[in-house]
Amino acid sequence: MSWFRPSSQSFQSWLYTRPQLVDFLRRIKRGLGLGSAFNRRLQALLHPLGDFTFIQIGAHDGFTGDPFRTFILSTSGKGILVEPQSSLIPLLEQHYSRRPGISIVRAAVSYSGASTVTLYSSALATVFAPNHPSLLASTSEEHLTTYSHGGVSEEQVPAVTLEVLMSQQGLKTVDCLFLDVEGAEADILLGMDSDKLCPKLICFEWVHIPKKLEQVSHHLRGMGFSLETFDADIIAWR
Fold it and tell me: From the first residue on, what is the mean pLDDT of each consecutive set of 10 residues in the chain (238 residues)?
């Protein structure tokens, strides 16, 4: 939530316990056109889609630092929230309890062919408000050790492809893919069956895949996407 950085940590903690208030403030900010360039561009691209369907991969707790939450709440389209960390699932359910049409799945999206993958996580105590979920997690141990600031823990989580996920959850089409997967972006974007998914918009972080960015960009352009790059993210649309 980079747009709001109060000096008082106690006030920040208090604010994080009131998601409806924060949602209200975010809507006002968006309505006034005061969001980041990424948010303004995303809003402009999502508007013509109406009640878009979506899959958010790496949904975390559905609130903390989430640039997609406001847009998900503004639509009644069906969607799937995917999060591998078991400790965050109750918070996801709580934060979206008033939003019907959403399925929450504890899993990691993977095209490795394995039924489970190892999830590596590390505490980032200073990133968000005190006493608020602040774990960095990735299926890439190399990525995690590069960015972590503490000990690394491991857990096995179910692995699923996007195609199987949609079939299991009864989502026939997906308009938007939102990715925050800490280094696994390339594996997902290059592995998914674009003919079956046919998304109209994809958002992903490019800063974690510099070695594969050219390959991913070429792949997406070959699928008919236009790409726009921001500080840490890329929006692809067609």
Answer: 48 68 72 82 96 97 90 95 92 94 97 91 53 62 64 86 97 96 93 93 95 97 98 97
Gyration radius (Cα) of the chain, Å: 17
Are residues 216 and 189 in contact, defined by beta-carbon separation less than 8 angstroms? Answer: yes
Angle among Cα 47, 45, 160 to the nearest 5 degrees reads 100
In the three-class reduction of DSSP (H, G, I as helix; E, B as strand; rest coil), residue 23 is classed as helix
198 conformational bin, left if phi > 0, alpha if psi -120 to 50, beta if neither:
left
Going by C-alpha positions, the residue among 9, 153, 11 that lies closest to residue 84 is 153
CB 208 within 8 A of CB 137: no
Q: Give the tens place of pLDDT for each residue, 126-151.
A: 444 444 445 677 776 666 666 666 67
Q: Which residues pair with 227 in a beta bridge?
A: 236
For residue 142, report the phi and psi dihedrals to the nearest 5 degrees. Answer: -60, -45
Domain architecture of the chain: domains with CATH: 9-237 (3.40.50.150)
* Positions of E strands within the chain: 54-57, 79-82, 102-105, 108-109, 116-123, 135-138, 152-160, 176-179, 201-205, 226-229, 233-237
pTM given for the model: 0.83
The DSSP call for residue 185 is H
CA distance 93 to 230: 30
Backbone angles phi, psi at 36, to 5 degrees: -65, 165
**CA gap 100, 213 in Å, rounded:** 35
